[in-house]
Design a protein that fits this description.
heterodimer, A: 323 residues, mainly alpha, 78% helix, B: 539 residues, alpha+beta, five-stranded mixed sheet, 33% helix, 20% strand, globular
Chain lengths: 323, 539
């Protein structure tokens, strides 16, 4: 088991270096200049001298190789530098946004798990019945509906319904308060986005749970278990579901990692000051240091999630553990 | 003896007038500001790069921190639409210039303190302006080029700041009323000129309370504010939100009472429909307009006939009313803000290419010019910025106008970064850009049309000493009538003679707010009148 973990951990290093090199090069291939964007952001005019001063201030007038070496060294020493846009430490910029993205991702994951696994299992067990049909329709609708569109729709619906009932339209708060400071305000802000994102997340996982359950239920060992006269509950919970969950766990892991930095439009729709919005802003502003740090963060989250998934695999399937 | 009908009319008029006066007095009595409450407003932008208003160009900085700072002079906060009169904020009275208009001595209020309790003196005002006009090595000042006429700024004593100009000019006072010119503390500037990039500490109507990175800013009433009785609010919260739909929804649900930049007509109509008389709307011509710039270094735009033809094809007079229903543009104007005394009258404008009242005649001339230049059936790509309001609306409309003279144009829409890059590299045929300014200062605002040798942010690629000479004469002219005549000459040269830049419709600023928000008055710029000192809540 130790060897298995170490192999997985060591595989992380080349992945991170590859991602770092790629993001460094790609960012510099995008046309534009952070200084010009910053100085021209008000629509006013600015001098060439101001642009040059800005380049010098940000250090982007130095040779590319020097900038790259500094970036890689920063990664090794865990010093990600300052945002070129705000001048604030990148760590601070990310730390301010990570809690909300993490909270939405966690809540969405909970919504997804709570919906997907029971419904997916029921759908498989009641294959081709009206119940299966309803669940499958619900799942297809979730996959086909973009979460940001559902978000917009849900806000409008909340506004219209509350106006119709109370005469005064209501919508969730638009400025984030941490859960420990004001749980009610926090949840009233995060629940709607979590549900809209979680629905799509659940739909994908539901389809996967159904497919794998159907597959597992046709395995020989399930037939054997039935022949032994085991209770259906035990067959499903102990023998079928545990095995069927292997690909579902992978999917949940990948989706969770995606949610941390991928809720770009949903965060804008709900005015959530999260990592996705910061990502867009960093790329728009051509803030190299911040974009690089964010990409590395997302890569790290993906790698870490994959590692956790691999470890869960080992727990769920002893064949992997003892191979 | 008056005839009975006339007598009746006079009586009715007098009675009407009496009612109007009575109603006005009654209205005024009702409009006594109430104290208290927190104003929440939306800031339609992402977080600005820094809090240093001297360094930044984005309005987001002003919308976030103007309430924390004082300025030397400003437009009248009760009537900021009047763009020609300036009032004291920190000074005690507007000075009469001496030495043939070259020396301005401002007396500074006493008893003003910064948030940290230290007194504000003339030394702070002088140090601030020194930093803006003559920034030290390593410090950038976004608007230093506005003050090329200033020779020296110094604190004569603890209560007097003196500006010495190299030459007398009418552009000085409007430039001095720049809302970005927030007064900083000398002690801090001397210690670290970059301190204000990450910190807020002013002497304005509100004290800085907190900033949630990238999300919101909060302020509370400054109990020592020098304009007695103000501010009326207990505090404010400004929420950053670049997404228009969120801002509209937030206003609808009263999560925020308003936003100050302005919303497009459709969004405002939607709010009015949903909230009825709970919403009030203020509108103003905006000191911003789209400007279409042909690249004179690229064929066929190096030919003045082609440039004139493309300008002549556009029917602004008929386009304006239709476009104003869907986009935040409205008024037809030349290169000067339409509300300014230096702006062209309609009759003057109608003599210029692109503004002829008879569009058929104009388009016939356009076709003739294209034929003469050998550019019939011209086809090209127009660069545009991926900003809906109003760039894309204006761009799409212009392309349709050109199609009426057989010109086939397509749009290349790019994000802000690549848009700037293409303009600066001259990598475009025709580009939709904008000329957006703060306090109306026509001579300064029309610099955008100067050749690159005189103004680095002109992307037309032409050099023209004649144009620079006319401009310089206008800049140094202090007699209004003569300056106005020079402005006409400059405008005619730029638009009609050379067709270097094609000014399109001026933007229309539409600001909706909950009706219980009182005191704030719209101005022609979203940079102006943002200190919130006179805002109050009738709740």
């Amino acid at each position: 088991m130790f060897r298995y973990i170490m192999t997985r951990v060591l595989a992380v290093i080349p992945t991170l270096i590859g991602a770092a090199t790629l993001v460094f090069i790609l960012m510099r291939l995008i046309p534009g200049d952070i200084c010009v964007v910053r100085l021209g952001s008000g629509g006013g005019s600015f001098s060439e001298h101001s642009v040059q001063m800005c380049h010098a201030e940000l250090g982007i007038d130095r040779p590319m190789i020097v900038q790259f070496a500094e970036f890689i060294w920063g990664l090794f020493t865990l010093n990600l530098g300052n945002s070129m846009w705000s001048g604030k430490p990148v760590v601070l910029e990310i730390a301010a946004r990570l809690p909300i993205s993490l909270e939405i991702a966690l809540l969405a994951a909970i919504v997804a798990i709570v919906i997907a696994i029971p419904l997916g299992t029921i759908s498989a067990l009641k294959q081709n019945t009206w119940l299966d049909l309803v669940v499958r329709t619900f799942a297809i609708a979730g996959i086909a509906t973009p979460s940001f569109w559902l978000g917009i729709l849900s806000i409008i619906m909340v506004l219209d319904v509350t106006q119709a009932i109370t005469g005064t339209p209501w919508m969730p708060p638009i400025d984030y308060v941490p859960l420990w400071k004001d749980p009610i305000r926090n949840l009233s802000m995060t629940l709607l986005p979590a549900i809209t994102v979680g629905y799509r997340y659940a739909a994908v996982s539901m389809r996967m749970t159904r497919s794998t359950m159907l597959e597992v239920m046709r395995e020989d060992y399930i037939r054997t278990a039935r022949a032994k006269g085991l209770l259906a509950k035990i067959i499903i919970n102990r023998h079928a579901l545990k095995n069927a969950l292997l690909p579902v766990v992978t999917l949940l892991g990948i989706e969770f990692a995606f949610l941390i930095g991928g809720l770009v439009v949903t965060e804008q729709v709900f005015n959530l000051n999260g990592i996705g919005r910061l990502f867009v802003l960093a790329v728009q502003n051509q803030d190299y240091t911040l974009t690089q740090a964010l990409v590395m963060l997302v890569v790290a989250i993906f790698v870490l999630t994959n590692l956790v998934v691999d470890l869960l695999y080992a727990w769920l399937d002893p064949r992997i553990r003892f191979a | 003896m008056l005839a009975p009908t006339v007598r009746r009319s006079v009586c009715a008029t007098l009675l009407g007038a009496a009612f109007a006066i009575g109603a006005a007095l009654h209205g005024n009595a009702e409009e006594t500001p109430k104290r208290g409450g927190i104003l929440t407003y939306m800031i339609p932008a992402d977080a600005p790069p820094s809090f240093d208003a001297h360094r930044e160009n984005t309005y987001a900085v002003v919308h976030m921190i103007a309430p924390f700072y004082s300025v030397l002079i400003r437009l009248n906060p009760s009537n900021p639409s009047d763009t020609t009169h300036f009032f004291c904020d920190l000074c005690t009275e507007m000075p009469t210039p001496t030495d043939d208009g070259k020396i301005y001595a401002f007396k500074i209020r006493q008893g003003v303190t910064f948030q940290d309790g230290s007194p504000l003196t003339a030394a702070d005002v002088a140090a601030t302006w020194h930093a803006i006009i003559f920034p030290p090595q390593g410090v950038s000042s976004a608007r230093e080029t506005w003050y090329t006429m200033v020779d020296k700024v110094e604190a004569q004593d603890a209560t007097t700041v003196v500006f010495k100009l190299k030459f007398a000019t009418s552009v000085f006072l409007p430039a001095l009323a720049d809302p970005y010119a927030m007064i900083y503390e000398k002690r801090i500037l001397d210690k670290d000129p970059h301190w204000y990039e990450k910190n807020v500490m002013g002497s304005g109507p509100f004290w800085f309370t907190s900033y949630d990175l990238g999300q919101s800013i909060k302020g509370t009433r400054n109990p020592n504010y020098y304009h007695k009785g103000q501010p009326y609010l207990d505090g404010f919260v400004g929420i950053l939100s670049p997404k228009q739909a969120v801002r509209v929804d937030a206003i609808r649900a009263d999560r925020a009472q308003m936003e100050f930049r302005g919303l497009p007509p459709a969004a405002v109509d939607q709010l009015k429909q949903q909230l009825g008389d709970k919403i009030t709307v203020q509108t103003s011509d905006w000191n911003c307009g789209n400007l279409i710039t042909p690249n004179t270094r690229r064929k066929p735009f190096d030919d003045v006939r082609v440039r004139r033809a493309l300008l002549l094809a556009i029917d602004q007079w008929h386009g304006a009313p239709a476009l104003s229903k869907i986009a935040d543009v409205k008024t037809v104007g030349g290169i000067v803000f339409p509300g300014s005394p230096l702006a062209a009258t309609k009759a003057e404008l109608e003599k210029l290419a692109g503004f002829w009242p008879d569009i058929e005649k104009s388009r016939a001339e356009a076709r003739r010019l294209l034929k003469e230049a050998g550019a019939e059936g011209l086809s090209f790509e127009m660069l545009n910025r991926n900003v809906d309001q109003p760039y894309l609306y204006v761009g799409t409309w212009i392309i349709d106008e050109w199609s009426k003279i057989g010109v086939h144009a397509t749009q290349k829409i790019v994000p802000t970064g690549p848009w700037y890059e293409a303009m600066r590299d001259g990598d475009f045929g025709v580009v939709v850009e904008a000329n957006c300014n703060g306090v109306v200062n026509p001579v300064m605002d029309t610099q955008k049309y100067l050749p690159r040798a005189a103004f680095t942010e002109n992307y037309g690629g032409y050099e023209d000493q004649t144009e620079i000479d006319i401009y310089n004469k206008m800049l140094h002219e202090t007699d209004f009538a003569r300056q106005r005549a020079l402005m006409r000459q400059y405008e005619t040269y730029v638009i009609d003679t050379k067709a270097y830049g094609w000014p399109m419709l001026w933007w229309n600023r539409i600001v909706p707010a909950w009706a219980y928000v009182k005191g704030w008055k719209i101005s022609p710029s979203h940079y102006v009148n943002q200190d919130l000192a006179n805002v109050w809540l009738d709740k």
